[in-house]
Amino acid sequence: MQEEQTLGKAYDSALMRRLLKYAKPYWVWILCCIFLLLVVAAIDLATPYVIKVAIDDHILAANRAYVVMEGSTEHPALVTIQGYGLLREDRLEDLPGGPRLELVKAEGKHFLQSADGDFVLELSPEELRELRRYEVSAILRLGLFLLVLLTVGFVLNYGQVYLLQYTGQRIIFDIRQDLFSHIQRLALRFFDGQPVGRLVTRVTNDIENLNEMYTGVLVNLFKDVFMVLGIIIVMFRLDTRLAFTSLSVLPVIVVMTAIFRTKARAAYRETRVRLARINANFAETISGMRVVQIFRQERRKFKEFEEINRDHYRASMRELMVYAVFRPAINMMDLLAKVLLFWVGGSLLLSRSIEFGVVYAFVSYMEMMFRPINDLTEKFNIMQASMASAERIFLIKDEEPAIKEPENPVPLGEVMGRIEFKNVWFAYVGEEWVLRDVSFTVEPGQTVAFVGATGAGKTTIMNLLTRFYDIQKGQILIDGKDIRTLRKEELRRSIGLVMQDVFLFSGTIAENIRLWNPEITREQIEEVARYVNAHHFIEKLPRKYDEPVTERGSTLSAGQRQLIAFARTLAYDPAILILDEATANIDTETEQLIQDALPKLLKGRTSLVVAHRLSTIQDADQIIVLHKGKIREMGTHQELLAQKGLYYNLFLLQYKEDFSAPEGARQVSS
């Protein structure tokens, strides 16, 4: 519920500070990106101004009046026609000038004449071109300058995009590595309450949302702010009247944006909550498809999914309406600003108090200013998704590992294999004790078996020895050293674990035996496979030890997976071996192979065996009978049968067809 309550938060300064820590190692690259963005923005700002200069100073100004220069004058724009030096009047500055001549056209010919008509120069086509030669040359220079400017902008923009994406990917790589590393350090207690799909989503989708924030919003925000401020400054420098006219709609846009943020946040939250329900329902249905089909629940599950899906559809449509209203409203404000600009600018043009190029520049700048405002919807959506994803990621990051490394670890050294449980109490939740004052000792090289009803605490003992969980009371010792004083890596290196549900990774059979340990050679792999009777079925596979293993080893039988697990454990040669119901779900033929392999596997090792099949533990040095978290009986197979207690009754229950039990013998004593 906490996750759902914060999904709509668009910005969280605390989360942002934590996210920026990941960007800190790349601050030089980020500054380079910002600098390049600012240069590109400056080029974008310069483009309309250059065009404005070309229009006002050279295209439309070509028809302005000229002045006949008196005496010797040097000026780059001076033109000599029919022996007269002519200079456009707006370039006269402080130079002395003579008669003022207007450029007029009559009967298809061009003339330069004074206001009173006393002085007239008829211009030939060549002379007219010569008169405008400087303007044409200036326009060409401005065009080339603009081309160079745009080319430089393209190159810099390419470099900025590449560098920004590269930096973003490096940051995301670091976040994903950090999160994955942290997840691996968490204790099993954390995974007991976390769906796998949720964790996968955190490492994939949620982190990818952060990538869009780093590359699409965070750095580009500098460009947007710089562009808007730059446009406002240029507008006021060009013309104050048009600047105030163009910016008159900004207060309305600010109000609209504030309303949009509120509505969009609520709509976004509602959509994400319903999307989470769809994912949960779909994952549950797929996982339980066998049950759905065998009990013919397809119709009910379809209706259930249809209702959840329809709720998501309605929420999505409400979210769509918010975005569908905001963007057209901003476009309408853009059009309104342009209408006002044309109205005021047109009036000023007609009264000759402004130049056409200035109006053109204002129109271009208005389009440039509304571009980031129009993109606000997308950026706001990215920020919401990123903040929600960041919060979910940091919820995992803030999860402290329940099993912590000791501050001053004790070296384990060469493991002899003596195990001692001293008055151990343990509960998964609160004080719901699974183990109650459990004490026993396993001498080096002994094989000790644990039996009892489901929930008696057999597997829990194995989990505690490997320190997947920490006990609340008592001590667990290996060779006289408390396991809580040992480094987890060193402790677990000395223990081999074979479980009932064998997990195989995607790869080959050889890789699953050596677990990518380069120190284990191919010869050792085949040797241990022969030792545990796995070689015979591996050799029958098309690619033998290089046969691909699909996810969880689904193409192999349970028995074959179990034999591979035995080979894997033996390849690492642990001093302590744990078999947790390793023969519970296998066929008779494979069981015979395992029964033959077990003595080889147990030889010379301290072994703890959890078994429901009592036939697999009759040769154990000691059998411990657990009931409701307490040790009720201890002894060898024959000793326990002679006691005629819990173990005796369990034995009779499994072999009732072979033994004739007295009345009441099958009642399990408490």
Could you describe the 3D structure shown?
Helices cover 57% and strands 14% of the residues. The two termini are 43 Å apart. It is α+β, with helices and mostly antiparallel strands. It has a six-stranded antiparallel β-sheet with strand order 2-3-1-4-5-6. Strands 12-15-16-9-17-18 form a six-stranded mixed β-sheet, sandwiched between helices.
Shape: elongated
How can the largest sheet be summarized? 6 strands, antiparallel
Structural class, judged by helices and strands?
alpha+beta
* Count of helix runs: 23
CATH architecture assignment of the domain at 1-234? Up-down Bundle
Regions with little confidence, pLDDT below 50 for 5+ residues? 1-6, 657-670
Cα(first) to Cα(last) distance is 43 Å
CATH topology of the domain at 1-234: ABC transporter transmembrane region fold
CATH evolutionary superfamily of the domain at 1-234: ABC transporter type 1, transmembrane domain
* Rg over alpha carbons: 42 Å
Helical residue percent band: 55-70%
What descriptive keywords fit this protein?
six-stranded antiparallel beta sheet, 18 strands, disordered C terminus, 670 residues, alpha+beta, ABC transporter transmembrane region fold, six-stranded mixed beta sheet
Give the structure's gist in a few sentences.
The strands form four sheets. The chain has a six-stranded antiparallel sheet with strand order 2-3-1-4-5-6.
SSE blueprint:
Elements: H1 2-5, H2 13-23, H3 27-59, E1 66-69, E2 79-81, E3 84-88, E4 97-106, E5 109-114, E6 120-123, H4 125-131, H5 133-185, H6 188-192, H7 196-218, H8 220-238, H9 240-246, H10 250-287, H11 289-294, H12 298-350, H13 356-374, H14 376-397, E7 419-427, E8 433-442, E9 447-452, H15 458-465, E10 473-478, E11 481-482, H16 488-493, E12 495-499, E13 507-508, H17 509-514, H18 522-531, H19 535-538, E14 548-549, H20 558-572, E15 576-580, H21 588-602, E16 606-610, E17 622-627, E18 630-635, H22 637-643, H23 646-654
Parallel strand pairs: 9-16, 9-17, 12-15, 15-16
Antiparallel strand pairs: 1-3, 1-4, 2-3, 4-5, 5-6, 7-8, 7-10, 10-11, 13-14, 17-18
Helix pairs in contact: 3-5, 3-8, 3-13, 5-7, 7-14, 8-9, 8-13, 9-12, 10-12, 12-13, 18-20, 20-21, 22-23
